[in-house]
Amino acid sequence: MNLRYDIAVIGGGAAGMLAAIKAAEAGAKVVLFEKKQVCGRKMLLTGKGRCNMTNTKPWAEFSSHMHPKAAFVKAAFHNFSNKDTIRFFNQIGLPTVVTQGQRVFPESMSAADVVDVLVSRMTKLSVDILYNCDIIKVMKSEKCYKCIYNKRIGDMMDIQAFSVKAVIVATGGLSYPITGSTGKGYDIARSFEHTVTPCFPSLTALTPKNYDTRLIGIDLENVGIYLTVNGDIVQMETGDLSFTDGGIEGSLGYRVSRKAVHAMINGNKVEIVLDLKPALSVATIKARIGREMEDLHYTEPLTDRRMVTLLKRLMPQQLIQPFLFAHKNVDVKSLPDVLKEWRFPIAKYVGYERAVVTAGGVSTEEVVSKTMQSRLSSGLFFAGEVLDVDGDTGGYNLQFAFSSGALAGQSAAKYVKSLKI
Predict the structure, then answer these.
(1) Among residues 32, 55, 210, 326, which one has the fewest Cβ atoms lying within 10 Å of its Cβ?
(2) Does residue 16 share a domain with residue 157?
(3) Strands of the 30-33 sheet, one edge to the other
(4) Pair 297, 251 in one domain
(5) Residue 153 maps to which CATH number?
(6) H/E stretch holding 162
(7) Please, are residues 208 and 247 in contact by the beta-carbon 8 Å criterion?
(8) pLDDT at 370
(9) Plot region of 47 (φ>0 → left; ψ -120 to 50 → alpha; else → beta)
């Protein structure tokens, strides 16, 4: 059997490009299918266009940010760790920097540069990249896989096909469908009888009930939030938060969004409690308010105007009117409590159109963690977001994409070499 390619990689995102590179480095002939006109479109959106590639945290800490089963990620991470990611990009011509929170970015702070060096590396390794190609179906014969796809030529679509020895599915999930993530990988997985666990948006905005649009554009630093489900606290976080046109976002909003969305899908009541002074107790805040009152020569009760003046010393000015609107009866006595507990009942969440990552996907129970190969069909591999693996914000998802892609590429190349065809 004379095949033009050994391995087909489906998807030109982070996982797919790493898979193609590592397979080619191992001597395999590789073709990569990309649905869009360019590779890495979703990567261009990460880190607000700067691309938070990874972080420098050791596995013990890194693993606590992976869901739902971090144990599945372990082999891929140790095979191609965050240190390996940094080293790899430095070696192919992309300097990196470590910023606050141990996050790693390209020195240029340009996501486009990350994509460019990956495409350049694939080209150097003679990986054939087929743009504007949408996989229709993958079928397996006795010793090879047949990939049927639509090739866009101008305004026309031409159905084409060829066979390979192994396939790596790295199609992403459902988030940011504008970038080409439409769930095609799930269809391929199901066609080989793989289980796809229910999917839902994660790292997304949570929209409060009766959302005060005056909050939009306000960024808060060093605040705390509590996520409650049916009145019970299920998660506590501190850090930075942003109010956007979608609702509560920023690193804090994203951290709690996974549990929040999952709870809402299951019909539970979700609420975010904002603590504007997480480092201070109610007693400490009460004492500070007393000192501010003395300094201003104020006595109780306060007029509306004097309350605004007092609040200017306790929170960003643009936050005052929304705060007062939400707490119409606040006075000096109740102020310490509401500064610690500003409640936002959540009405809805922003869907896949703006969610950073998809939770759920191809069941990891049916994939070998040490190779990323299917347990149900030899020669079929999975990598990246298509799997039932997702991480918190902070470089975890891209690192998993790189780690799983690298392992899938290396394993597929080894598999191909073991074949006698």
Answers:
(1) 210
(2) yes
(3) 128-130, 30-33, 7-10, 166-169, 380-382
(4) yes
(5) 3.50.50.60
(6) strand 156-164
(7) yes
(8) 98
(9) left
Element spanning 288, H or E: helix 282-296
Q: Are residues 180 and 38 in the same domain?
A: yes
The whole-number pLDDT of residue 115 equals 98
Query: Residue 203, SS3?
Result: coil
Asked whether the beta carbons of 61 and 115 are under 8 A apart, the reply is: no
What is the mean predicted confidence (pLDDT) over 49-59?
96
Q: Given the DSSP bridges, would you call strands 66-67 and 390-391 parallel, antiparallel or unpaired?
A: antiparallel
Structural domain of 373: 7-201+358-418
Torsion over CA of 170, 174, 175 and 178, rounded to 10 degrees? 90
Quick check: is 250 in a domain? yes
Q: Among 147-156, 283-292, 383-392, where is mean pLDDT lowest?
A: 147-156
For residue 273, being part of any structural domain is answered with yes
Residue 2: its pLDDT value, please? 53
The DSSP 8-state label assigned to residue 302 in this structure reads P
pLDDT (tens digit per residue) in 170-195: 999 999 888 878 899 999 999 999 99
User: Do 213 and 231 belong to one domain?
Assistant: yes
Considering the domain boundaries, does residue 292 fall inside one?
Answer: yes
Q: Is residue 100 part of a domain?
A: yes
**Strands 380-382, 166-169: pairing kind:** parallel
Q: Is residue 116 domain-shared with residue 223, that is, in the same domain? A: no
Let me know whether 179 and 284 are in one domain. no
Domain termination site, one of 349, 375, 406: 349
Comparing 27-36, 144-153, 301-310, 385-394, the range with the smallest average pLDDT is 144-153
Q: How far apart are CA 106 and CA 122, in angstroms?
A: 19
AA letter at 269: K
* CB atoms closer than 10 angstroms to residue 9: 36
| Same domain, yes or no: 58 and 153 | yes
Contact of 7 with 416, CB cutoff 8 Å: yes
Residue 400 is given by DSSP the state H
Report pLDDT for 179.
83
pTM exceeds 0.70: yes
Give the pLDDT confidence of 326-385 residue by residue, as tens digits. Answer: 999 999 999 999 999 999 999 999 999 999 999 999 999 999 999 999 999 999 999 999
Mean per-residue pLDDT, 286-309? 94
CA separation for the pair 332, 347 (Å, rounded) = 30
Mean pLDDT of the chain: 95
